[in-house]
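Deliverable D4.2, example record:
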Amino acid sequence: MRKVIVLLLLISSIALLAQELNELSILSKAVKTNDIVSSSIKDVNNRKASCIIFLTDLEADMDFRPNIELVKLISKPGRHEVYVQPGERVIEGECKKYCVNFQSK
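Output generated by the structure prediction step:
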């Protein structure tokens, strides 16, 4: 009986350790670049929208929700250009099985 219990515990612990834990994390701080973004994208007040570019290796669709307004979203594999109103402080990014809150301090 003891051998059966030990064997079951051993198999269950191996199964738990074999599972890969998925985690979304921010690998680096924000970097200002000289990438040229379209100046034709404007918000409802006719102001030039701010562009924030998210680079990722996730192969799933991502959804971005700022507090004020999402002006435009251009998604390409591994690159998401999020156009928001100037002065936006919080953008929530969501992917299937993941959620992260990007916040300016």
